[in-house]
């Protein structure tokens, strides 16, 4: 049994949760390798990027020290290998999620405040790349952060994350994980409730494959008697089909990773990095590929820079992995920009 799988099972036992054993492929290595790209202009973590018209956009984030957070907004052009600083967010946010729909970018939810005084927000900001301007969008049905946002067709799906335990919640510990899921129709300018996710979790990752939303990893936070949170990673993979409004559960990750990132190339799910709080604190460099056809996972070449709170997005056959924290928690923000090249010979 590999060390990755052993650590995964120990975490599951520690959490008191039983999950089906992960299916790990034993086959030839994946044709993929890492290369370096231009670093971001600002070191930050807790990033949820999006791609619009071939450019990669990143907004907000946590700075080091973790009491700092940002309204910084920039875009990366793979044709020139350059970043361009753009109009700042209307308000500073971290864990704010970007999704592209039509010709617009939507910056959704997130937290305001430096640690530990985090406060989930319902705000949605809409960015027009043609004018480099932001405007107010239709707010979420309620404040939410650390969930995932995914675009399928022209609609944006918001799944899970953390919500305020009460209206006055202004502290990191005063938020709870949710199964709530909603969809936004930009044409109708309306949010609609959809089927709840099977698992309440935060800091998961996602990708869209064949019109379905794959939600993977993350963690669950449980308040202890002393008021602090016990954060336990989950390796669960759940898939939402907008056509049927139903969920299904598939083989879990070989290693439960929270604060991870994901993207898709060639109909496969690629997952990177993350952190762990129990049974021991750890930042992961692990990377994995999941094949929906076989329901199996396979190890990838690890991240050159292990980190969590990183962002990932695919442009063509290249997965750009940006920023993140190199130490558990809010410290160690980095400008790292590493690219996994899939199905292309190493130069």
Q: What is the fold-level CATH name, i.e. the topology? A: Neuraminidase
Number of domains: 1
What amount of the residues lies in strands? 35-45%
Radius of gyration: 18 Å
CATH architecture type: 6 Propeller
Number of strands: 32
Mean pLDDT: 93
User: Biggest sheet: strands, sense, closure?
Assistant: 4 strands, antiparallel
* Low-confidence spans: 1-20
Tell me the name of the CATH class: Mainly Beta
Q: Report the total helices.
A: 1
**Spatial ordering of strands, largest sheet:** 1-32-31-30
Distance between the termini: 34 Å
The CATH superfamily is Kelch-type beta propeller
Structural class: mainly beta
Shape: globular
Helix content: under 10%
Quick rundown:
The chain has one helix at 3-15; strands at 32-36, 50-52, 55-59, 73-77, 82-85, 97-101, 104-108, 111-112, 119-120, 124-128, 133-136, 148-152, 155-159, 162-164, 175-177, 181-185, 190-193, 205-209, 212-216, 219-223, 229-233, 237-241, 246-250, 261-265, 268-272, 275-276, 282-283, 287-291, 296-299, 311-315, 318-322, 337-342. It is mainly β.
């Amino acid at each position: 049994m590999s060390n990755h799988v052993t650590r995964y099972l120990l975490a599951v036992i520690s959490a008191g949760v039983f999950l089906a054993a992960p299916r790990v492929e034993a086959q030839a290595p994946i044709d993929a390798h890492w290369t370096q790209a231009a670093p971001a202009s600002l070191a930050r973590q807790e990033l949820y990027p999006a791609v619009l018209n071939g450019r990669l956009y990143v907004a907000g984030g946590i700075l080091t020290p973790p009491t700092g957070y940002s309204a910084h907004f920039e875009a990366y052009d793979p044709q020139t290998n350059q970043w361009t600083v753009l109009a700042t967010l209307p308000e500073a946010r971290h864990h704010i999620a970007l999704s592209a729909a039509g010709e617009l970018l939507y910056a959704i939810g997130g937290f305001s405040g430096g640690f530990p005084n985090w406060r989930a927000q319902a705000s949605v900001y809409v960015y027009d790349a043609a004018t480099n301007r932001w405007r107010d969008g239709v707010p979420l049905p309620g404040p939410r952060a650390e969930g995932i946002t995914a675009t399928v067709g022209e609609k944006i799906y918001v799944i899970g994350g953390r919500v305020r335990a009460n209206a006055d919640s202004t502290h990191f510990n005063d938020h709870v994980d949710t199964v709530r899921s909603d969809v936004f129709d930009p044409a109708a300018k309306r949010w609609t409730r959809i089927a709840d996710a099977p698992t309440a979790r935060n800091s998961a990752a996602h990708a869209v494959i064949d019109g379905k939303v794959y939600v993977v990893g993350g963690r669950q936070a449980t308040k202890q008697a002393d008021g602090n949170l016990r954060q336990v990673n989950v390796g669960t993979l759940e898939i939402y089909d907008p056509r049927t409004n139903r969920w299904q559960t598939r083989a879990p990750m070989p290693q439960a990773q929270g604060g991870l990132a994901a993207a898709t190339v060639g109909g496969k799910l690629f997952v990177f990095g993350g952190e762990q709080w129990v049974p021991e604190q750890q930042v992961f460099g692990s990377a994995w590929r999941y094949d929906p056809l076989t329901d199996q996972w396979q190890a990838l070449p690890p991240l050159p820079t292990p980190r969590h709170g990183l962002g990932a997005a695919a442009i063509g056959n290249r997965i750009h992995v940006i920023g993140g924290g190199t130490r558990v928690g809010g410290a160690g923000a980095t400008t790292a920009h590493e690219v996994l090249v899939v199905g292309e010979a190493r130069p």
